[in-house]
Amino acid sequence: VVNITSLYKDTGMFTYDPGFTSTASCESKITYIDGDEGILLHRGYPIEQLAEHGDFLETCYLLLYGELPTKAQKEDFDYRVTHHTMVHEQMNRFFTGFRRDAHPMAVMCGVVGAMSAFYHDSTDISDPHQRMVASLRMIAKMPTIAAMAYKYHVGQPFVYPKNELGYAANFLHMCFAVPCEEYKVNPVLARAMERIFILHADHEQNASTSTVRLAGSSGANPFACIAAGIACLWGPAHGGANEAALNMLDEIGSVDRIPEFIDRAKDKNDPFRLMGFGHRVYKNYDPRAKIMQKTCHEVLSELGIKDDPQLDIAMELERIALTDEYFIEKKLYPNIDFYSGITLKALGFPTTMFTVLFALARTVGWIAQWKEMIEDPKQKIGRPRQLYTGATQRDYVPIAKR
Ligand code: ACO
C-alpha cells in the first residue's frame, strides 16, 4: 500500500492558497490596483482620467499596445476596428438555433466560442499577424454579437452596424434601432455607454481574466479562450453581480426595508449578501463605483427621470452600510456593480443583458492579458497543484461483492 503522503515527498514545497488570495500567477504591465487606497491605473493612467477624457477605443489601444495612440495611430486603429464590425452572415442562423427564452449570456458563451469556426484564419497563435487580426475581430464584433443576442432575446430583427457612428453609439444603434421608425442615438447616452465600457475594460487578474489566461496557456485559440472568460464572468460573485444587485434592490422594494436586509447580510446563518458590495482587492471605495454613480445621475437627468426608486434605495443602502460597524470592520464598500445596474436599466437594457455588456467591454482586457501571456517567454501551461485529501490506495471490489 502506498502511503499517500509520501507522494508529496519529491514535489518540493508548494503553497495551499484556495481562491489564490496571495499567489501571483503572472507578471503583468497592464493594470495596477491599490486596493487599500482605491486606485486603479491602466498602463499607469488613472481610470478617472481615462473615463473623463478618453474614448473606449483609445483605452483599447492603450491596453493592447502599452501607450496612448498618436492621432494617426488612433485613426488607423479606429478604421481597422470599424472595418471588422460585421459578423459572418451565417452567424445569424447560429443565433436562431437557441431557444427564444435562453439567457443572453448562454447565447454569448455559444456564439463567441463558435467564432473560431467562422474565423479560423486567425486562430494560429504562433503568428503575430493572426493574433492581431483575432484581437481586432473580437473587439469589433463583440458589440455586434451582443446586440444580436439582445435583439434575439426581445424578438426583433437584427440591425447591422452603422460604421459612421462611434463604438458605443453604434452599439446603442444596433440594440435600439427598429426598421419601422427613425432612431437617432442620444450623444449624452452614447458618452455614458462609452464611459461604462471604459470602466469595465480591464481589472488585472480577476476570475474571468485568470480563466482566459489559463485556457490560453494550453495554446487554445483566442476565440475559445474568450468564450471561457465569458462563462466565468457569468457567475453572480463576478460579472453577474450587476444583475443580482438590481434584483436585490427590487427585492428590498422600499427604503424602510433596508435595515432588515442589512441585518440579513450580517447574519452568518443567512446566505444573503449585499450584492454590489465588497471586493477581493478593494478594501476601500472602488474608484469605478464613484464614476459609475456620477454616470448614473447624468443618465437619469438626461432622460428626465427625477425619482428613481431603485436609485433612492441604493443611495440610502450605501449610506447606512458605510456607517455600519460590520461593513466598516470588513472594509466592504460599493463595487462597480452597485450603480451599473440602475444606469443600464435607464439606458433601456433588461437585467439579463447587464453581464453581456460587461463581457463586451472586458473583451479588450481579456485579449490584452492573453496577448501579454502568449508573448511572454516565461509562459508555461497553467497547472495548479492540490492537497489530496481522498482515500488511500485500495483494491478494486467486483460489483457483486460491494
Ligand atoms: N455582504 C455581506 N457580507 C459580505 C459581503 C457582502 N456583499 N462581501 C463579503 N462579506 C463578508 C463575508 O461574509 C466575510 O465575512 P467573514 O469574515 O465573517 O466570514 C468577509 O466579508 C470576507 O468575505 P469573502 O467572501 O471572504 O471575501 P472575498 O474576497 O472572497 O469575496 C466578493 C469578494 C466575492 C466580491 C464578496 O465581497 C461578495 O460576494 N460580494 C457580493 C457580490 C459582488 O458584488 N460581486 C462583484 C465583485 S466585483 C466584480 O466582479 C466586478
UniProtKB/TrEMBL annotation:
Record's Pfam families? Citrate_synt
> NCBIfam families from the entry?
cit_synth_I, PRK05614.1
Instruction: Tell me the name of the encoding gene.
Output: gltA
Quote the pathway field: Carbohydrate metabolism; tricarboxylic acid cycle; isocitrate from oxaloacetate: step 1/2
The taxonomic lineage of its organism, from the top, reads: Bacteria, Pseudomonadati, Pseudomonadota, Alphaproteobacteria, Hyphomicrobiales
Which positions are tagged coiled coil?
none
Q: Which InterPro entries match?
A: Citrate_synth-like_lrg_a-sub, Citrate_synth-like_sm_a-sub, Citrate_synthase, Citrate_synthase_AS, Citrate_synthase_bac-typ, Citrate_synthase_sf, Citrate_synthase_typ-I
Q: Which species is the source of this protein?
A: Nitratireductor rhodophyticola
The UniProt family comment states: Belongs to the citrate synthase family.
Which reaction equations make up its catalytic activity?
Answer: oxaloacetate + acetyl-CoA + H2O = citrate + CoA + H(+)
**Does the keyword field hold Cell division?**
no
Family annotation (SUPFAM superfamilies): Citrate synthase
Keywords of this entry? Acyltransferase, Transferase, Tricarboxylic acid cycle
Q: What is this protein called?
A: Citrate synthase
Q: List, in alphabetical order, the Gene Ontology terms for molecular function in this entry.
A: citrate synthase activity
